[in-house]
């Protein structure tokens, strides 16, 4: 009958939607485990070249922002500068984009990350990291500290090294109390009685 036919169309459409829609968490976990066990993609030559060029352009954009705002962000201006500071967070950011690209390829069980994977990884990086850095939302996060804050942290680290011998165990509360007393003595002037 017509009613059964209409019902079958809608019921089959629902089943197709479930198959094409979201995966269950359990199925997603199994798929990720399968992908991890089956492939370890690397950047293709073209994807690597594209990433290099886009990274340099991104850095140029950050430099323009720094000049406009007269505020230094801690992302390196050039790949050369990043290479000179190999252990810096800047290299870690570039490596993160590479890992994201490779992970996207892995989810498709591909042996190489393509230019499309690099595009998506850079898009994710752009919206998550650079936008937050340029708005100041990452203040205090590793690699995103202002020069002034970084200098203060270096001074505090030097004071800690002078105050406490390497290898000694001191509670965090003791350190905070000690520094609070030092800061209060240095910055607080008692009113004169008189």
TrEMBL record:
Pfam families from the UniProt entry: MCM5_C (PF21933), MCM_lid (PF17855)
Domain MCM5 C-terminal: from-to ranges: 155-182
GO MF: 3'-5' DNA helicase activity; ATP binding; single-stranded DNA binding; single-stranded DNA helicase activity
Lineage, opening ranks: Eukaryota, Metazoa, Ecdysozoa, Arthropoda, Crustacea
Listed InterPro entries: MCM, MCM5_C, MCM_lid, P-loop_NTPase
BP GO terms, sorted: DNA replication initiation; double-strand break repair via break-induced replication
GO cellular component annotations of the record: MCM complex; nucleus
Domain MCM AAA-lid residues, every copy: 26-128
Cross-referenced Gene3D superfamilies: P-loop containing nucleotide triphosphate hydrolases
Protein name in the entry: Uncharacterized protein
């Amino acid at each position: 009958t017509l009613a059964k036919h209409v019902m079958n169309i809608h019921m089959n459409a629902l089943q197709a939607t479930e198959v094409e829609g979201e995966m269950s968490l359990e199925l997603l976990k199994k798929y990720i485990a399968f992908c991890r066990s089956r492939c370890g993609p690397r950047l293709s030559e073209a994807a690597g070249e594209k990433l290099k060029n886009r990274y340099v352009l991104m850095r140029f954009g950050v430099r323009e922002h720094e000049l406009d705002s007269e505020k230094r962000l801690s992302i390196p201006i050039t790949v050369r500068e990043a290479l000179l500071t190999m252990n810096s967070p800047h290299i870690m950011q570039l490596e993160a984009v590479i890992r994201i690209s490779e992970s996207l390829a892995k989810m498709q069980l591909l042996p190489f990350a393509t230019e499309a994977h690099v595009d998506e990884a850079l898009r994710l990086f752009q919206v998550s990291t650079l936008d937050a850095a340029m708005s100041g939302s990452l203040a205090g996060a590793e690699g995103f500290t202002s020069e002034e804050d970084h200098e203060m942290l270096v001074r505090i680290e030097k004071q800690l090294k002078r105050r406490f011998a390497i290898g000694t165990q001191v509670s965090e509360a003791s350190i905070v109390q000690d520094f609070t007393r030092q800061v209060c003595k240095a910055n607080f002037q008692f009113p004169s009685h008189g």
